[in-house]
Amino acid sequence: MHEKLENLKQYLKSLGKVAVAYSSGVDSTFLLKTAHDVLGENAIAITAVSNSFTKREHNESIEFCKAQNIRQILCPVNELEIPQVRSNPKDRCYFCKKNLFQVFIKAAQQEGFVHVIEGSNMDDLGDYRPGLKALTELKIKSPLRECSLYKNEIRELSRELGLDTWNKPAFACLASRIPYGQEITEEKLRLIEKSEDFLFSLGIIQRRVRYIKADETVTARIEVLPEDINKIIENRCIIDETLKSYGFDFVCLDLLGFKSGNLNKVINK
Q1: pLDDT tens column, 226-256
Q2: Which terminus of the chain, N or C, has less C-beta within 10 A?
Q3: Cα(191)–Cα(176) distance, integer angstroms
Q4: Average pLDDT, the chain
Q5: Reduced to 3 states, what is the DSSP secondary structure of residue 28?
Q6: Within 13 Å, how many C-alpha atoms sit on residue 82's CB side?
Q7: Are 104 and 45 in contact (CB under 8 A)?
Q8: Phi and psi (nearest 5°) for 165?
Q9: Strand ranges, E, within 57-195
Q10: pLDDT category, 267, cuts 50, 70, 90?
């Protein structure tokens, strides 16, 4: 693991100047911190101001960069203006990621940064990730994959670096809560964000609220870690009442609990 870290540092040093696509997640935080440790002011953060990411994540990214004295560029992005994203096909992530990184590349070049790098790791190769194709086409570098780092190693190295994100739950964009083929709208994304924020206020850190529409009804399907299922049941009345007041017609619980990429199960079917 530490040998991989040294390889990562040497790889980053060879790039000279990098703009790190930064979302405040586990991987991008570790990559940004390491890049800044190695390159100093020649490593900057570049962050999307997007409909698909929560205000909580956005604010955490700003706070981290300020605390670490890292320069951050904020790039407004409205992915819902892209028909291939809004209509939510199975390869939505490809179109979204390609648009996002084209914006990043342009912003980075304006600041004199040739290399845009991002934080996908070796575990990302094991799931359905059409966005990786966009990264390849745009020649975006993925140093964590280049150095064969896995998620558990990144968490452990983050812990050693004193990063609060070392045990931060995995996060995906809010659009991933909406099944493929169902249109993505600003209203739906804000409803999901509001609902997940409410669960967070109950002490449920790892949570998903899936937006499931059938006929004229909309159901919130809650996914939490198995150890948090009892907490959902204990608070079921207030959760049901609150999420319905936000706009859901029904509220249900996935009995098997949270699993990253749950909605990808329908692809093979």
Answers
A1: 999 999 999 999 999 999 999 999 999 999 9
A2: C
A3: 13
A4: 94
A5: helix
A6: 19
A7: no
A8: -80, 0
A9: 72-77, 115-117
A10: low
